[in-house]
Design brief:
By secondary structure, the chain is of the alpha+beta class. It is about 20% helix and about 35% strand. It contains two helices and four strands. It has helices at about 5-15, 70, and strands at about 20-25, 30-35, 40-45, 50-55. A hairpin with a 2-residue loop joins strand 1 (about 20-25) and strand 2 (about 30-35).
């Protein structure tokens, strides 16, 4: 089962990027990004996000930061 942080779940539902994403590579019309919060990797192609790798053992953290501001935007 994939274990993604709430901002990444929102990314996959709505396509909205969040501040925890770091670009790893950009080639032509595709982009590979890593979430620094849940350590998952995503591929963005043709206006579509797809999970490449999800690391369930890294999320949730014992003490979670507040996501209210991210989830409300």
């Amino acid at each position: 089962m994939l274990c993604q942080c709430p901002p990444c779940q929102q990314l996959l539902r709505t396509g909205r990027r969040h501040s925890y994403l770091t670009t790893i590579s950009q080639i032509r019309n595709s982009e590979l990004v890593k979430c620094t919060l849940c350590l998952s990797y995503y591929l963005h192609e043709q206006s579509h996000w797809e999970t490449v790798s999800s690391h369930g053992d890294h999320y949730p953290f014992p003490t979670k930061p507040k996501y209210d501001a991210i989830m409300q935007n």
